[in-house]
Amino acid sequence: MRKAWRLRTLVLVAIAALLLAIWAFPVLWALLTSFKTERDVLAYPPTVIFEPTLRNYRDVLFGSASLLPNLLSSVIIAGASTLLTLLFAIPAAYALARLEFPGKRASGFYVLATQMLPPVGLIIPYYLVLQKIGALDTYAGLIVIYLTFSLPFAIWLMVSYFEDIPREMEEAALLDRAGRLRALWYVILPQARGGIAVTTIFVFLNAWNEFLFAVVLGGNRVRPVTVAMFNFISVEQTQWAKLAAGAMLAMAPVILLGLLAQRHIVKGLTVGAVKGGGRR
Amino acid sequence: MRVDLSMPWLGGFAGVDNYVKMGADPRFWNSLWLTLVYTLCTVVLQVALGLSLALLVLQIPRGQGALRIAAILPIVLAPVVVGLFWRTLVLAPDVGLVDVATRALGLGSHNWLGDPQLALVSVIAIHTWQWTPFAFLVILASLSSLPPDVFEAARIDRASAWQRFRHITLPLIRPALIIVVIMRTMIALSAFAAIFAATGGGPGTATEILNLYAYRTSFSELNLGYGAALAMVLLAITLLVSFVMFRVRRGR
Q1: φ, ψ for residue A53 (rounded to 5)?
Q2: For chain A, which domains are there?
Q3: Per the CB < 8 Å rule, is A159 touching B179?
Q4: Contacts of A12 in chain B (CB under 8 A)
Q5: What are phi and psi of B63, to 5 degrees?
Q6: Where in the sequence is the domain holding B183, given as residue range(s)?
Q7: Does some domain include residue B152?
Q8: I need a surface site. Which of A86, A207, B26, B78 has the fewest CB within 10 A?
């Protein structure tokens, strides 16, 4: 019995390790590339043995095309749009999951309408609107535009998590004369923290990696790191090593957020497991 | 109808001409078919793999955190770098990892992005690799918020693992599963960047899904009228599919 259990764990760990490798591999490769000289990058077939250099990171951090200001821009845009998204999406998702109101079905469906249009089709209207209100190439303008795609995404993801939660849990709170907002805050949010964490990660990630809108609607004063990295790609030659170093640098904040947020994914289970049915 | 960008006023109104033309356009039907195959394959693979992985990872006593972080890596890495990685390191003939593996297994060397049939498989593989983590994380979060006492009761009632999955787990995570399917279908229908970077729709029209056909028609062949008509068809399909899926979501 015990032996079978050990074998099972071993197989599970092996599969998990394989997955880890498949997903992490390109990142390791980019990490390796970021320490190569441009000549080593182009070696064919690709090499693993080379003389490592820190020049790419020096150029990317402190060179004439330093990415630091762009990183700051990205943090402002992705951070602000993520916070605003959560602020609006949590109550909206709660309403769609729990309340009854006229037009609920239709509004729920049309919330997703912007997700159905190919982004290329939205660029020109967005440009004209931002131009009219003088918000082109400003943080506020770009953040508002990002909300148009992050809000529908976040709302619907969270509706599905809120619907997972048994109604009885919150009915107990409502009977105790807690208002809807208190029930949301004290019952729903702790219970759905894993889902909220996942939503936060992907909202931030989508804003961080966004390219098309950032190029067209931002550009000079506001220039996130995804756009700035394209400086390393030109018609004549692409500086792959610097690009890789830039990509590693740009990954750092997202990984940091991921590290903080992913802990909550398992919390619901452990808390529930320890206290058992006592929570109800 | 052709809209000439330098002298657009010479055109005039085409009525439904563009849509009539579509019926007799084999390239349109080909792109429609590819869109269907691409969407169906990527969504089914992502959800099936993501769900299996989530169920598997929940069984692992320690180190789940590392896996959850590893899962976001393919999406965090800058898309240009991902494209380069696949083209030069994984799918390149002779030196690519996949080619090395198939030759070692005696399956011979193939041109993974150059051969028309393999190219479609390759772009589906790239999309699945990059976005399975999304399905994985969303489902994992849903699974871990389930009340454990329900499973306890089922286990005491001697329900088999499959019965527990089929009658307890699946209905409980249904909302999350369906929303993943809806979101990923919408993305797959209008997929662009990954295919564009890997094959550009080629070789020939082997990976030219509807969205790419619309793009090529509009911006390579500069036939804006027909390109816009193609984009409208894509929009109509997306709306219809999403609408049906929302109906399924509600019906319980």
Answers
A1: -135, 150
A2: 66-279 (1.10.3720.10)
A3: yes
A4: 56, 59-60
A5: 85, 15
A6: 15-250
A7: yes
A8: B26
Nearest CA in chain B to A225: B78
CA gap B222, B134 in Å, rounded = 36
Q: What DSSP state is assigned to residue A233? A: B
Asked if residue B34 is part of any domain, the answer here is yes
HSE-CB of A182 using CA atoms within 13 angstroms: 9
pLDDT value for B12? 64
**Any idea of the CA torsion for A120, A72, A234, A126, to the nearest 10 degrees?**
20
Q: Report the number of distinct structural domains present in chain B.
A: 1
Tokens of B186: 């919408």
**Is B40 a residue whose pLDDT tops 60?**
yes
For residue B201, is it within any domain? yes
Range 109-138 of A in CB contact (< 8 A) with B? 109, 112, 115-118, 120-121
CATH number for the domain that contains residue B172: 1.10.3720.10
Instruction: List all residues 6 or more positions away from A34 whose beta carbon is below 8 Å from its beta carbon.
Output: A56, A57, A241, A244, A245, A247, A248
Q: Which residue from A63, A94, A15 is spatially nearest to A231, judged by alpha carbons? A: A63
Whether residue B5 lies inside any domain: the answer is no
Average pLDDT of the segment spanning B65-76: 84
Per-residue model confidence as pLDDT tens digits over A145-197: 999 989 999 998 999 888 878 788 778 777 777 788 888 888 888 888 888 99
**B70 close to A23: Cβ distance less than 8 angstroms:** yes
A266 touches chain B (CB under 8 A): yes
